[in-house]
Amino acid sequence: MPESESESNVNLDLILDFEVPVSVRFGKREMTLGDILKLGSGALIELDRSADDPVELLVNQSLLARGEVVVAEGHYAIRITQVDSTAARIRSLGNEESQLEPREEAR
User: Fold this and answer.
1) For the chain, how big is the Rg over CA atoms in Å?
2) The pLDDT of residue 96
3) Helix (H), strand (E), coil (C) string for the chain
4) What pLDDT sits at residue 91?
5) Is the overall model pTM greater than 0.90, yes or no?
6) pLDDT of amino acid 16
7) What are the 10-residue block averages of pLDDT along the chain, 107 residues in total?
8) Quick one: 89 exposed, middle or buried, by C-beta within 10 A (0-12, 13-18, 19+)?
9) Hey, which of 16, 55, 69, 91 would disulfide with 96, CB 3.0 to 4.6 Å?
């Protein structure tokens, strides 16, 4: 039997106060274990993105939005520039694929 819209809203309201991990991805890089063991204070690791590329906002390890890094009251923050639809955001919390269009990889 299909749920009515109000029943669906009540079910969604039950989970709105759950906390989920939120992180920001500036880029990534694969390294050998040998290179990782050589890392020390002052070492630099180049990532796969330029400084002008948007960062990715991940919720529960799923891409939710993209944006730019800013400073707000002395803390790092993200100004969102691209975000999934509400339905896609809910799906992404269940670890399904995000609907954001794939960005071109830096070359």
Assistant:
1) 18
2) 46
3) CCCCHHHHHHHHHCCCCCCCCEEEECCCCCCCHHHHHCCCCCCCCCCCCCCCCCEEEEECCEEEEEEEEEEECCEEEEEEEEECCHHHHHHHHCCCCCCCCCCCCCC
4) 72
5) no
6) 84
7) 58 82 94 97 95 91 92 96 80 56 46
8) middle
9) 91
